[in-house]
Amino acid sequence: MTFLTAVTAVVALALMLPFYRVIKGPTVYDRMIGVGVSGTKTVILICLVGFMYGRIDMFIDIAIAYAMLNFLGGIIVAKYLGRTGGEPQ
């Protein structure tokens, strides 16, 4: 097992940790933070997989697109919660 494979496995396991906050979060904001953190870890995981396959140029484009979708999703949910007073309907 190479060092890069071990790091990828650790990041993949660390990706599961924010899902506790998504599932058990007492507020909607905690769930939003959990989804944002898991999205960020997914971008890192995509880049590591690109390094493993030797095609970082292709995987970086995928990671950037995923990061933009993650950011825009957070903005959309924040605007929606701002209009509804902080609680989803």
TrEMBL record:
Record keywords: Cell membrane, Membrane, Transmembrane, Transmembrane helix, Transport
Transmembrane segments: 6-23, 35-53, 59-81
Top-rank taxon: Bacteria
Major place of residence: membrane
Subcellular location: Cell membrane
A Pfam family per the record: MrpF_PhaF
Membrane topology: Multi-pass membrane protein
Protein family per UniProt: Belongs to the CPA3 antiporters (TC 2.A.63) subunit F family.
Descriptive protein name: Monovalent cation/H+ antiporter complex subunit F
